[in-house]
């Protein structure tokens, strides 16, 4: 039999599995053992890079699957509209300033707890001027139950003083200006701009949006800023405000962090999350926290 015509047997290590015979022979001619290792190393490095990059379809080996396809995204938004048609911010507030304070207090705390604290807080300190006139230590007992109360007290009092000093005591309706207030990052600014001023300049990324956006394969990132950037390319801008509220409510009612209620979820058959508790579709390992 002529050289090169015999059937090549797989190696004991199995590293050549799935590689074309001609490519193996070419690699073997250069470096019998190192070629396959180098190929495997390159594939491994590429896989790791893909796992931390911005959303890039496909997320799995399923041929033709694109989690960011407009039709799929549109269907998810339509089902969310049916589930949560008129949801609004869960933090109770009567002014932009009250919403700023409530959102600062909501960090690492439930909205339910914040709503228990703020009525008494705003009755005692009804304006930014009232809070600006006290020291953070005086505020601490009022907000202790929200957790991280020392840092939050400094942020709230600092924000009140900054508001009076630079903005005449009025909450600005621009992202750049809001971000100058102590304790206000993009999440808080987006909440205030969207819920009070009706301006959709970004997407609120709290723990629910963080978790569910990954489960729905809208992002592979783990940093809130990068997740927001991804969502802003996937979700139409006119939906940014409502989408955030809907996902937050969905995260509380069905898509909870532990043991999500997948069997009850209307999104189940278009969700491929790797940590589903029940599924009628293929589950994707990377689609979870």
Molecular structure report:
With 289 residues, the protein is mainly α. It has two domains: 66-88 and 201-289, Endonuclease Iii, domain 2; 96-195, Endonuclease III, domain 1 (Orthogonal Bundle), CATH 1.10.340.30. Helix content is 51%, strand content 0%. The chain has helices at residues 21-30, 34-51, 70-83, 96-105, 111-124, 128-132, 136-143, 149-167, 175-178, 186-195, 207-215, 224-234, 240-253. Mean pLDDT is 85; it is low at 1-54 and 56-61.
Task: Give the strand content.
Answer: under 5%
| CATH superfamily (homologous) name of the largest domain | Helix-hairpin-Helix base-excision DNA repair enzymes (C-terminal)
What is the helix/strand order?
A: HHHHHHHHHHHHH
Structural class: mainly alpha
Number of strands: 0
- What does the overall shape look like? elongated
CATH topology term of the largest domain: Endonuclease Iii, domain 2
Q: How large is the count of helical segments? A: 13
Q: Give the proportion of residues in helices.
A: 40-55%
Radius of gyration, whole Å: 26 Å
What characterizes the major β-sheet? none
What is the domain tally? 2
The average pLDDT is 85
Low-confidence blocks of residues: 1-54, 56-61
CATH architecture of the largest domain: Orthogonal Bundle
For the record, give the distance between the C-alpha atoms at the N and C termini, rounded to a whole number. 55 Å
* CATH top level class name of the largest domain: Mainly Alpha
């Amino acid at each position: 039999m002529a050289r090169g015509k015999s059937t090549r047997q797989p190696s004991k290590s199995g590293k050549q599995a799935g590689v074309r015979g001609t490519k193996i022979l070419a690699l073997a001619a250069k470096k019998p053992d190192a070629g396959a290792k180098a190929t495997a190393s390159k594939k491994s490095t590429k896989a790791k890079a893909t796992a931390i990059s911005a959303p890039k379809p496909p997320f799995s080996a399923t041929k033709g699957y694109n989690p960011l396809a407009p039709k799929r995204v549109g269907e998810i938004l339509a089902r969310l509209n049916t589930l949560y048609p008129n949801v609004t911010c869960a933090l109770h507030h009567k002014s932009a300033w009250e919403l700023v304070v409530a959102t600062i207090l909501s960090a690492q705390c439930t909205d339910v707890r914040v709503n228990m604290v703020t009525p008494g807080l705003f009755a005692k300190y009804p304006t930014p001027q009232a809070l600006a006139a006290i020291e953070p230590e005086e505020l601490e007992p009022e907000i202790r139950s929200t957790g991280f109360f020392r840092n939050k007290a400094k942020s709230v009092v600092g924000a009140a003083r900054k508001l009076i000093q630079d903005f005449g005591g009025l909450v600005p309706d621009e992202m750049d200006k809001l971000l100058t207030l102590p304790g206000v990052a993009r999440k808080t600014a987006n909440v205030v701009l969207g819920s009070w001023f009706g301006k959709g300049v970004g997407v609120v990324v709290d723990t629910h949006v963080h978790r569910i956006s990954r489960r729905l394969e809208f992002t592979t990132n783990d940093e809130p800023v990068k997740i927001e950037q991804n969502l802003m390319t996937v979700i139409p801008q006119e939906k940014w405000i409502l989408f955030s509220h809907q996902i937050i409510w969905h995260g509380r009612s069905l898509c909870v962090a532990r043991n999500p209620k997948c069997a009850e979820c209307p999104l189940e058959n278009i969700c491929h999350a790797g940590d589903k508790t029940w599924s009628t579709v293929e589950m994707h390992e990377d689609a979870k926290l």
